[in-house]
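Dear H.,

Thanks for agreeing to be a second pair of eyes. The structure we're designing against is below in token form, covering all 345 positions.
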């Protein structure tokens, strides 16, 4: 018996099988490492490209930062400065610009849109995930996907044809237009129109991300709450939504980033005028024509051949990048804080 076993071990067939197994394991290890290095290389390349984009934009905007200093965020005569820079001689370029009105226009429009989109989006996600079923659920999911797929220029056209005439007919009159004529022209193109159009644009993102977060809540949470005799709506409000809070907040912050970077639709409906909204005007604060940062880049791009105007537009890009970077970092911070509070980390 021992001789037979020894013969099997040292036989050419057994040796060949062992060799094939070792070669297969070696090839598998090499294949895994190859994929690992490939993925790492792609990630590193992407990070390097992002860093180079930041450096390139900062270098292009540096003359404005160097000439303006803190005035770039404390003054707001952007349109007048663009006009003077455009007609200035090439040997006397004007490099001082103030972007305060553009920054305020971007922030107010985005925050106003979030005040509408977040309750509507989270509420719709709750209805899709917890209340509806069958045909209604499929219809709401399809409608959400359709809204998310519509190009921004179509939203801008809807704003031009529906929102602006509605604001002009319902909220404006001749007396009001004459009263504020010394500040700006009231014609329906306003921050309010931008808020309405932008809220419709970002609500599908809030719905989709909130629905994913709600669906990720373990079913045992709902069953335990219902077993204790807690009503379904109270279970949703007190158990499901708090458990999905991190995903919902991440979706809200990402939607804010989407709103900050929107250019085409807002340039079509928000007025394309770099006015500084003032709370002293009351409700007219929302009727003020504004020019967000992204829209300024689009609207003033025809004058980009002038070096100082090119630098000013790149300065707008710097602020957009910084705001979006802070929002991205804020998403991670909020998500980590919520997970630690829930004991998941």
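And this is the sequence the design step returned. I haven't edited it by hand at all.
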């Amino acid at each position: 018996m021992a001789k037979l076993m020894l013969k099997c071990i040292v036989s050419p067939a057994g040796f060949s099988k062992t060799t094939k197994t070792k070669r297969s394991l070696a090839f598998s290890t090499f294949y895994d490492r190859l994929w690992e290095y490939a993925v790492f290389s792609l990630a590193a390349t992407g990070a390097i490209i992002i860093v180079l984009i930041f450096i390139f934009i900062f270098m292009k905007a540096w003359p404005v930062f160097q000439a303006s200093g803190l005035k770039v965020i404390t003054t707001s005569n952007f349109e007048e400065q663009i006009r003077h820079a455009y007609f200035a001689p090439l040997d006397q370029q004007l490099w001082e610009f103030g972007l305060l009105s553009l920054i305020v226009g971007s922030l107010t429009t985005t925050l106003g849109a979030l005040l509408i989109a977040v309750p509507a989006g989270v509420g719709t996600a709750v209805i899709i995930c917890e209340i509806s079923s069958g045909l209604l659920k499929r219809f709401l999911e399809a409608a959400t996907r359709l809204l998310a797929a519509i190009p921004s220029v179509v939203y801008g056209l809807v704003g031009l044809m529906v929102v602006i005439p509605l604001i002009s007919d319902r909220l404006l009159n001749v007396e009001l237009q004459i009263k504020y004529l010394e500040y700006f022209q009231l014609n329906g193109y306003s921050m309010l129109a931008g808020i309405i159009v932008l809220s419709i644009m970002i609500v599908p993102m809030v719905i989709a991300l909130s629905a994913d977060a709600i669906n990720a809540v373990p079913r045992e949470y709902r069953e335990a709450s219902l077993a204790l005799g807690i009503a379904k709506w109270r279970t949703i409000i007190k158990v499901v939504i708090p458990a999905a809070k991190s995903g919902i907040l991440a979706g809200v912050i990402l939607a804010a980033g989407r709103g900050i970077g929107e250019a085409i639709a807002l340039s079509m409906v928000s007025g394309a005028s770099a006015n500084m909204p003032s709370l002293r005007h009351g409700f007219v604060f929302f009727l003020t024509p504004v020019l967000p940062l992204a829209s300024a880049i689009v609207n003033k791009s025809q004058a980009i051949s002038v070096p100082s105007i090119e630098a000013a537009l790149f300065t707008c890009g710097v602020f957009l990048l910084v705001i979006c970077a802070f929002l991205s970092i804020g998403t991670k911070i909020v998500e980590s804080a919520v997970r630690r509070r829930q004991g998941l980390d």
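Two observations from my side: Residues 2-54 form one domain. The CA atoms of residues 128 and 140 lie 7 Å apart.

Warmly,
E.
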